[in-house]
# Entry
Amino acid sequence: FEVRHVPERDARGTVVSVPGIATNLEDRKTAERQLYLLNYALDHIGEGIYLMEGDSPRFSYVNEGAAGALGFTKAELTGGMGVFDIDPEWTPEQWAAFLPEIQRVRQMTIETVHRTRGGRITPVEVTGNYFEFEGRAYNMAIVRDISERRAAEAELRTRERSFRTLVENTPDLLVRWDRNLNRVFVNPAFAAAQGKSVEDLLAGGFGSGHHVEAGP
# Structure
């Protein structure tokens, strides 16, 4: 309970009584615990959370994940910073075009980059969420660092290029079929052995006669 004491005085100013007003704080304490738990949870997830009110690109709330990823404090980010301070690829014109679209679809995911306090550029995936609460519009962005994913994709592309270079230049005959026994890949050596082009062999599949000439 919260108890407030209000002294009552007579005409001469003498305190004649001190009534107490007690307020049950159980509901308020429960709400405070729930709010604390929510903030604690948001600060301990891996993604960055950014909240913007109305049409403003400025941050009204960020979690520890956002602050840690960028190298700013939460107070700095919510003290006047916004989208244009951390994303060098976004302009006011893009923001103006984004607002009606996010209001229409309610959620969208894009890939962009964020710039840290030290100037490092980090590729990120941003999921924007639009919602309204008590008559007020909000945009909440959930940001995930995709540096490792980009690096893995680049490594995969490098390996694919290396593999293609290898199979296209090896003298061995290489061919691959799908489950319907249609050719889905042949290398130049195989095509030369058949006296046909790679394109003709892939277009013809494996069905005609189920026969492959061994070549010389």
